[in-house]
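Quick illustration, no need to memorize.
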Amino acid sequence: MATSDVHNPEWVPSEPMKPLPKLGLFTMFRLGLFQMGLGMLSLLTLGVLNQVMISELKVPGTIAAGTIAMYQFVAPARIWFGQMSDSKPIRGYHRTGYIWVGMTLQAVCLFLAVQVVWKLGASTAAVGWTTQSTAWATLLALMFGLYGLCISASSTPFVALLVDITDEDQRSKVVGIVWSMLMVGIVVGAIVGQRMLTGLTPDTLQPVVNRLFTVFPIAVIGLTFLATFGIEKKYSRYASRSHLVEREDQITLGRAFKVLTASPQTGIFFSFLLVMTISLFLQQPVLEPYAREVFGMTIAESAGLNKYWGYGVLAGMSLGGFLIVPRIGKQRAAKLGCLLTSACFLLIITSGLTQTQMLLKSAVILFGLSSGVLTNSAVSLMLDLTAAETAGTFVGAWGLAQALAQASATLAGGAILDLGRRLFQQPFPAYSLVFACEALGMILAVVLLARVSIQEFRTSSEKAISAVLEAELD
């Protein structure tokens, strides 16, 4: 087996490296503007476009959710784009160029996708579901696939940039701030989107939505440049660490899968993550249409539900990180988050049964609060179940698993809704079926979580992971 410089105790740098500055709080929040932009764009696709397709254009839920979900199904490209940014810098920079180009193309793809949506809606309204409608739906799925590739091209190098510009003692703080800014983006997007959509009528639907999908992407491109301009040049430690990450450059999807399955504990925990994520996001394509059809809300009002969810998530992440997890531990906090989230889905069903909008909004806030606690504790637990030598592999593969789970959840949410419509012929029980499946899924996640043992992982997993990597490099 070949031996690289990282394993040679006699290796020393040719000249001492000049100490690089550490990030200040202002720079951390500045970096968070990128994630804030991603949050705003996610609101456009999952908070506005999906309900326009389902409730206004009467596109079947499975088709609407399935086409949108394509942006998540191309998530394996994240590993490839990460390797590209490592090995092929753009104009001397490993991350910044990919981030800028990826985000710009992302905005363009999203606007073009909306134009295809109008063609799909017009086709189904004129002649029903025909070969032409199928062609437009296929093109829409392709557009969202390209959109997903652009997300991978920008977000993966951005996460790598966070690693490059921070030392180990700063990363938890940076990640906490940047993740919170993602929620801020969703809240800001919900508030601004609600105002732009207020007073919407069938005649103004297309021009108003087109304007929304023009203004938001342009603003997000601006936030991306503001967030990352000059950061890599001033703070990046990549050059001084490149000999230490040589093995990470060679990670493939197949090897990542072998690493994930090397330890039984790793497989159990990632099964928990998969079930938890799917159960958490089944509601994504149906919550706003549920508010429209069951409660009679307008598009603006239903899109505004996202701000209540965002408020809850921000509060939940803060409570989880500073109060709950330190007091009861990560595993118990994750269990609590699962159980509370399950109860919130039952509360959402109850709100529809009683036709109480205030109860729905309260349930959405509590759902966000529970989701925040669950996310904070689950991510913290994942860091405990990460071997330091292969942290990049674990974090990258976790992102891949999360993306695929979200895509599956988006598609399954629409499919379950369609099944419910066929079974019950009424909106309320059809939507309730989706929320009931989520509640049951969270209970299953608790069962899987009970089988996770951090101690067992620490005693066996590192050896298994090391053996996999050595076999691949031999």
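The chain has two domains: 24-242, 251-474.
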